[in-house]
């Protein structure tokens, strides 16, 4: 699912945009209504598209682009402006802004622009989100191999599945669960949260819930 953040001084407009995008299956991760809060929002970088008003209190949008965004970034920037001043648009374009929308903005146009800009962005596969460098990911793979042979062990995590994985890897049972939880935490921050939310679930999965999900 696409993730969008909004920096817009009009709280009413920001909430309206969020409601519209949410209905269309787009996640709005954060909203800021001034430049200072917008700077903190940018530092999180948990979005695919940033909707940015150029006129903001404290720090204006162009300054945010110029001073607080990396030139090489993995997200798109769509700027709102009530004024189509050519010099401002030229400077913003030179700084890497991807698109401009003049106010008043049309909600459907915002959505269409977001989707058009992101149509070539590939959603990471699940196995790309769980790092193979982590012990917990290895234990997840072991668990799936065991469950393919004996799926009933999904109901016996602590009594049967964890001990079997522990024996395979010459570790204690407690470290198996701890390592798997660590892998889930890491994957959650790398994009698994969005995949999980697409399933209509909004809290981080337990180990049992994850394994059940992977078995489908």
UniProtKB/TrEMBL annotation:
Keyword DNA-binding: yes
Signal sequence range: none
Species this protein is from: Macrococcus equipercicus
4-aspartylphosphate, modified sites: 53
A GO molecular function held by the record: DNA binding
Name of protein: Response regulator
SMART domains: REC (SM00448)
The keyword Phosphoprotein is assigned to this record: yes
């Amino acid at each position: 699912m696409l993730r969008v953040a909004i920096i817009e001084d009009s709280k009413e407009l920001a909430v309206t945009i969020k409601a519209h995008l949410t209905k269309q299956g787009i996640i709005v991760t954060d909203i800021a209504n001034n430049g200072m809060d917008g700077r903190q929002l940018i530092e999180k970088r948990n979005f695919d598209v940033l909707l940015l008003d150029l006129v903001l209190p404290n720090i204006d949008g162009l300054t945010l682009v110029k001073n607080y965004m990396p030139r090489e970034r993995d997200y798109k920037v769509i700027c709102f402006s009530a004024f189509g001043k050519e010099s401002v648009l030229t400077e913003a374009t030179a700084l890497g802004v991807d698109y401009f929308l003049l106010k008043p903005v049309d909600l459907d146009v915002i959505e269409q622009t977001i989707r058009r800009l992101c149509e070539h962005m590939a959603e990471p596969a699940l196995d790309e989100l769980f790092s193979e460098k982590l012990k917990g990911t290895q234990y997840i793979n072991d668990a799936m191999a065991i469950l393919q042979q004996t799926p009933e062990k999904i109901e016996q995590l602590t009594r049967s599945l964890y001990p079997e994985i522990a024996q395979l890897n010459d570790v204690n049972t407690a470290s198996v669960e701890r390592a798997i939880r660590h892998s889930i935490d890491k994957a959650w921050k790398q994009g698994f949260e969005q995949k999980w939310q697409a399933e209509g679930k909004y809290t981080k999965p337990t180990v049992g819930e994850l394994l059940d999900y992977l078995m489908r």
